[in-house]
Amino acid sequence: MPQLNPSPWFFIMLASWMTYSMIIQPKILSFLSTNPPSSKAPTTPPTTPWTWPWT
């Protein structure tokens, strides 16, 4: 079964991960975020308990 032979596929996987790690990933990480994190504290809206009609 040729699928179990790691000889050609291991090199292809290793080359693609090295390409991703060294070339593509730094270019993607250099983009500015469209939604930067804000420094203000998150506020939670006031909640009211649900009133069930049968209780």
From TrEMBL:
Domain of life: Eukaryota
UniProt-annotated stretches for the region Disordered: 35-55
A GO-annotated cellular component: proton-transporting ATP synthase complex
The keyword Translocase is assigned to this record: no
TM ranges: 6-24
A GO biological process held by the record: proton motive force-driven ATP synthesis
The family this protein is said to belong to: Belongs to the ATPase protein 8 family.
Protein name as annotated: ATP synthase complex subunit 8
Organism listed in the record: Edolisoma coerulescens
Annotated gene: ATP8
